[in-house]
Design brief:
Blueprint lengths: L1 E6 L10 H18 L3 E4 L14 H11 L4 E7 L6 H14 L4 E5 L5 H6 L7 H17 L3 E4 L4 E5 L13 E5 L3 H10 L2 E5 L4 H18 L9 E9 L3 H23 L16 H6 L3 H6 L3 E4 L1 H15 L3 E5 L7 H14 L7
Parallel strand pairs: 1-2, 1-11, 2-3, 3-4, 4-7, 7-8, 8-9, 9-10, 9-11
Antiparallel strand pairs: 5-6
Helix pairs in contact: 1-2, 1-12, 2-3, 3-5, 6-7, 11-12
InterPro entries: Bact_Lucif_Oxidored (IPR050766), Luciferase-like_dom (IPR011251), Luciferase-like_sf (IPR036661)
Protein name: Luciferase
Keywords: Monooxygenase, Oxidoreductase
Amino acid sequence: MKFGLNFIPTFQSSKVSAEDYFAQALRLCERADTLGYSSAKTVEHYFHDYGGHSPNPSVLLAAIAARTTKLRLATGAVIPAFNNPIKLAGELAMLDNISHGRLDVGFGRAFIPEEFQAFNVPMDESRARFEEGIALIRQLWTQEEVSFTGNYHHLDHIHSSPKPVQQPHPPMWIASISSLEGVRWAAQQGYYLMIVSSVGGLERTSQLAHTYRTAWKEAEHLPGTEQIQVVVQCYLAESHEQALEGFKQARSVCMDVFAQALRSWQGQTSSAYLGYERLLGAFSKQTWQTSIEEGTALVGTPEEVLEQVYTLQRWYGDVELSLEILFGNMPDMESMRTLELFAQGVMPHFQS
């Protein structure tokens, strides 16, 4: 098991500034680099207090790279449908150079209708644009001169620079919320898998992980080389009561801003996102208590959270847990306490 950090801004901008949020994130990463955490990851979203303060993951990751020496830097994820692949390939390769080859690139399809509308991209084209964009970026990284004719992009003798430090290219990951089709495709292509567990809980996340590993084996990739990362929220304190109260406050804010973003699904359907119009109704049934019960959050004392991690390991196998420890309107003291307590009380039990 490995343990990294996941940064998705989910604070109320009327109460917390983006400046303060990013300062907190950077302080956490500097300390995490000395405590043995494996990675730092951030998102691409727009407009809403749910993720919208991070429209370009490379900017925050470059700042993290300048303050650390060991943390892997992960996009979780960039959206090919909203970016020109030439620009995205160049920016990500630049980040790989700045970080001396510490970049992991996660790609996602996005899922908020309002974002697609603003970029004038039909949601029904999401998967096709996603797959074409990734294929083109991979070519731009690995070929000196690229000519490409697709449904959405046409390139004629293009040389992309800089090239990545990591050869043939940085590790490539696919972000998934609930699509079994998507995780099978990722395994077939030889890409690693990022799972956001907040929608499916233990059973659905376990199903995604099992489907991915089976498809990886069927694709005859080298056994045991697959990688899976699972996002979970995490809140630790010295006492059980303190942990529950602190998590409850932060999680409530997080749920509110996520619900605001999901409201753009009202009256919307898409053949590329079957069932997503029911997300808001399903999410409205969740509480801070159910997130703990369903394994999408690790909450308690170090001893309690250790047992919760063992439970996730039994369900998912050995994965990297991407811990969201800065969410809601959380003050610096609380997120730093979680970082320290998890490193002291949980991580040593999973060292080789």
